[in-house]
Amino acid sequence: MSTERGRIRVTGFDTDRVTERDDLSDWSEATTGGTESRWRRALRRFRHNRVAMLGVYVVAAMALLSFFARPVTIAGITVQPFSIAPYDPSTILYLEPGSTVGRYDPPTLAHPMGTDASGRDLFSRVLVGGRLSISIGFVVVGITATFGLAYGAVAGYYGGWVDEILMRFVDVIFAFPGLVLALVIVALLGGGYWPLVIAFSVPGWAGYARLIRGEILSVKENEYVLAAQALGARDRSVIFRHIVPNAMAPLIVQASLSIGTVVIGVAALGFLGLGFEPGTPEWGTMLDQTRETLIQGPGGSIPWWATVFPGGAIFLFVMAMNMIGDGVNDALDAQEVGNVGQGGGG
Amino acid sequence: MTLLEINDLTVNFYTEDGVVTAVDDLSYRIESGETFGVVGESGAGKSVTALSLMRLIEDPGRIESGEILFKGEDLLEMSEAEIRSVRGNEIAMIFQDAQTALNPVYSVGEQISEAIRHHLNYSDAEARDRTIQLLDRVGIPDAESRYDDYPHEFSGGMQQRAVIAMALSCDPDLLIADEPTTALDVTTEAKILDQIQDLADEFDTAVQLITHDLGVVAKICERVMVMYAGRPVEKAPVEDLYYDPKHPYTVGLMSSIPRIGDERDRLQTIPGTMPDLVDVPPGCAFHPRCPYAEESCAQKQPPLVDPETGDAATAADDRAAACLEYTGDLEGELEFEVSVEGEDPLLEEGQDAR
Amino acid sequence: MSLRRFIAKRVLLIFPILFGVSVITFALVHITPGDPVDVVVALNPDISPAEEARLRARYGLNDPIWEQYLDWLVGVLQGDFGKVIATDRAVSTVIVERLPETIALGLFGWVFAVIIAVPAGIYAAVRKDELGDHVSRFLALSGISIPNFWLGLMLILVGALTLNLWPVLAPRTALYSPEMLWYLLLPGITIGTASASTLMRIMRSSMAEEMNKEYVTAARAKGLPERTVVLKHVLRNSLISVTTVAAFLTASIVSGSVVVEQVFGWPGLGRALISAVSNREIDLILGITLFIGVAIILANLVADILYAVLDPRIRYD
Fold first, then answer.
1. Quick check: B139 and B54 in contact, CB under 8 A?
2. A9/B262 touch (CB, cutoff 8 Å), yes or no
3. Theoretical Cys-Cys bridge with C56: which of A100, B56, B64, C61, CB 3.0 to 4.6 Å?
4. Model-level pTM?
5. Do both C152 and C248 map to the same domain?
6. Where is the ABC transmembrane type-1 domain (chain C) (predicted)?
7. In this complex, is the C-beta atom of C21 within 8 Å of any C-beta atom belonging to chain A?
């Protein structure tokens, strides 16, 4: 074998020997786990993120506590018999026979968070109070992310005038701050669980739509998508088989950061007295009542516990949710979206 | 006069996957005004070496040991302020990709003149004049009106020229050119190389040219160091390297240069790839790719020695290679041969740019 | 395209968006049962049905919805935003009266956010993964997680009721007097905290991203002091991406004002909106939302222009 280099000639560098001989050492070129899939790697990184895992534990604990706080009955059948909370959240304790409990009792062993304006056990109310806000948070994000994904995918994939019209509508939604739109909707529909879900879903999807459209515009030019189109794949299958999976990462990050925003928004409407009936055990609604006490504390003493605990519960939950969101963001290596979403809050 | 002397430089990176030794026990020197080539595939530690010279290694990297003597003073012992007065002033760098090395939001002229104002205490107007002269000198037409242009308004070749002007702005004694032509097309590459050579002569500047291309080295360098997996494997004056290579890796690199008029069907490349520095093969790092490797190569790491005597090489040695052949540990022989046909090929190659 | 044409095009785009905003709000307010006359009647039981019908006719509440919309739109184009039925005052008068209160509060929140966030973001990016970075990131995470109404209540609890530094409700002396700054402190911090935290997080991440770019190494290789490298080269680049959230921050401060004004009894547009919503004052709801829409769209426009000015690569297309 010989090779010619201008006028320099190298002979005897026989590379076949390398491929033919046995390995001289245990070392091999295939090194550590380059084949691990993106999602598997993200999961591993998330698990190693202590802050994010703390968030998962806190969110799970708060969700479970509120679920098991009082029995759950659906259509007369008790589906969840446990009752962690010591008192019924709506029982006015000083009306009970032989009770020594009054209005705004400070925290004691029997009532670790004290009692509220109507002499109800605050600890029980805070435990149960998570049910509405937390579940609305998850339901709204589920609805808005799904709808926004489909909307943005259609706009981004078809482009042209379809995109133009669809995105102008998104611009209109973005001209409302999410909370203002939700406020108007709830005030007009009246409060309650499903009106709140609607109120936060109406402004909430637009952020996802814009995000997904942008992602799809950048993914669309990739060769594998062009190849799929050239091979005659149908639009729907191109969108859902090829484009959407690649645009998922930022969507998941946005969704995980939005749950906290919606929870704060729901509580804010509760605080404004628009979300639920007064007296409903819901974190924000509980704070609505307490604002009066701050303006003039009964008999000069201020029932700080009625303000600190329900609000602290919201803060703790949203903080844990955002820790998860940051962890998901880091694990998926997505850009920091910095909670730039719609859906109230702020 | 020795301008730069590097002794036993070791640079580690502390990554998630473990400690990576990017530069391992490296020694070499550069004389005033000479052009010194550093050759190797990507990942050989060439760029890390370059950044170490300016103490620009950032987390998670750390210069572990060694000394970098520049004009007799150890750069590693200097205070932050002292090293800053060396950077850009006495040692300057030409980056590989001019497009990313230029700040997109400032004009090209401003980015050159800020260094002049900083190091030479020129006024705004003086720095502007000098910058325009430099831009003109590196071949940017209509330099005065291009001063206020932003990098994206320059073509790739012009961006590289601007980066060269930036490096020369304070008349440095040492110019580190890190793959200065890799991002460019072949015609532009030849022009830029000529220019670096001319300017180095004109400004009497020593150049450390980092490249993966032996052809480029042949064209402008006087002495060469070949690196593999963070270690130097061969050092030689350029003629010796071509006519009498000592290390199998150098030979492999030489046999993989494509040439017009080549009659072979396939390019003779070195089998395999450069190892990931997280997991370097035991013994000689090149052994899995070396046609002459034996059992002992997988066990003993060859020291850099004088190939004639087998004595350990120092920064002062011009000729050194790291192969067990020269320490007497290799049973077989390095069976390659380099033959030269006709007149002096280097001379001729140097004259007609390829 | 020149910068001027780019701006002209963006300004023209405002009108279809505003039209959409007004249609949506108008539709929302009208498809739901109940109108302001119902509220007036509920408050004054001695109003006769005939008088009720006369009121409805007077405010055009019996016309088909599109006719009501057109009437309203024609009015708006002539500068007439309708009337608050309960008090018989012009909507524009109410907005003009409440606006300075909200602007003072929002501006205070904005300035507070920028003053805190920009240096904190730079600091955290420069000291990435050091203690100071961890502390400021933790504070920022807390800041985006804390409900603003609760933060407000807690500030009242501590600042007004425990330390007695502030009255619970600011005296309504004069908005333009210097001591008003002192009374603005608690509501201003409350409204600005979420924005400051968001801005800081974005500042930090965009700075940190820019710090890894090669032009930073190149700037250091020129021998420039680290101060110049960070505050000249890196900052200018990261500000480009930060401007994109300026509009979001405005929206967040506007939302915030609705809640925070309620907490602190601040008589701004946010409180006006809440009372308008509970009293079904259609024209007032429409007027205020339209006004908010204009503010947010203008903030977007300013952000776009700023973006174009800061980034020489933008080609306005």
1. no
2. no
3. C61
4. 0.84
5. yes
6. 99-307
7. yes
